[in-house]
Design goal:
273 residues, 78% helix
Length: 273
């Protein structure tokens, strides 16, 4: 008790909030992890009565699962690469060029996340049907890109704005060409924001289900779609195994890029100036 008295009322309240947050955030993840390795777990036991890898063998032995993992990573890689090629020039233009309705155009990229996506996807699906893009790889990639426009435009645009133009002007005064200034000064300084946007784009593509289901079924079954069928058709243990498989890339990428994913980069990415 002396420890809590030493903390003071305010620190004690903050400590309680931290504990509650940890329980609500880590509790479901811990339950998922335990369930994935459970052989037998019956109420009211707090922990599983036995452990097993049978459901891991079952899930990983299904050809549909293996194909969905490869397809999901392929689509996410292509979507991220195309988003960089298409959105980085647009983000630089929003940051450096003042043109009529520029803020409105930038704000429009937020609309893909401001409303329920299914209505947008249905409208796009009608257009894709007329263009012959239903159940095609190109159609799935395009629907994923629509879902990632906000990340690859807002965050890099803020990163480019954070680069002081005086540094660019000094390089140009020294005789550097505009392309060399961009390559040697602007792009390296904006790279943390671009890296964060690329990570979010990749992870968002991995998790995309609604657009893929509408445009890509039956030939393009990615990890989220296969996971839904496993959860519906098999015990919860199989769903827990596949959930961990789906979550693992997110954890690995965020840990690997934690020096880029900072509060400053994230907050600046969602400001309009």
């Amino acid at each position: 008790m002396w420890y809590f008295r030493a903390l003071g009322k305010r620190k004690l309240f903050e400590f309680i909030l931290l504990v509650v947050f940890t329980i609500f955030f880590m509790g479901p993840l811990l339950n998922l992890l335990l369930l994935a390795f459970t052989g037998k777990w019956q109420y009211p036991a707090v922990l599983p009565q036995s452990w097993s890898l049978d459901w891991w063998r079952f899930v990983l032995s299904k050809d549909e699962v293996v194909k969905s993992i490869g397809l999901s990573f392929l689509i996410a890689t292509v979507v991220t690469a195309l988003s960089i090629v298409l959105c980085i020039p647009a983000a630089y233009a929003f940051a450096r060029i003042r043109f009529p309705l520029s803020r409105m155009f930038l704000f429009s990229f937020l609309l893909t996340h401001a409303f329920p996506k299914m209505g947008l996807y249905v409208s796009i699906g009608v257009l894709f049907y007329k263009l012959g893009l239903m159940n095609t790889f190109a159609g799935v990639v395009l629907i994923h890109i629509v879902n990632t426009l906000m990340f690859m435009t807002w965050i890099p645009s803020a990163a480019f704005r954070s680069v002081h133009q005086a540094q660019e002007e000094s390089a140009r005064d020294a005789g550097a060409s505009p392309f060399r200034v961009f390559r040697s000064i602007t792009l390296p300084m904006a790279m943390p924001g671009i890296t964060v946007a690329s990570i979010f784009t990749f992870l968002n593509s991995l998790d995309e289900a609604q657009g893929t289901f509408l445009v890509g079924i039956p030939d393009f079954r990615t990890m989220p779609i296969v996971m839904y069928s496993i959860v519906a058709d098999y015990p919860s243990t199989a769903g827990a195994v596949f959930s961990i498989i789906l979550t693992l890339p997110t954890a690995v990428l965020l840990i690997a890029a934690q020096r880029f994913v900072t509060a400053d980069v994230m907050s600046s990415g969602f400001q309009m100036k």
